[in-house]
Specification:
It is built from 3 helices and no strands. The protein is mainly alpha-helical. The chain starts with a helix and ends in a 5-residue tail after the last helix. The relative contact order is 0.25.
């Protein structure tokens, strides 16, 4: 799994509260963060986090 795929997985899980949290988890799991940049990606991840948390998908 790439860092980008894992970032989307984390966002969908609702276990992270922000993109910064996603980056912390990725780094702790040994992923390189070069792919996790840009305003559009941050917006996508933020929306997924918000939707997952609204659905009650929080771990």
């Amino acid at each position: 799994m790439t860092a980008l795929e894992r970032a989307f997985e984390l966002a969908n899980s609702g276990s992270c509260e922000s993109v910064a949290d996603i980056k912390k988890v990725l780094k702790s799991e040994g992923y390189a963060l070069q792919q996790i940049v840009g305003r559009t990606l941050s917006r996508q991840l933020t929306e997924l986090i918000r939707d997952a948390r609204a659905r009650g998908k929080v771990r």
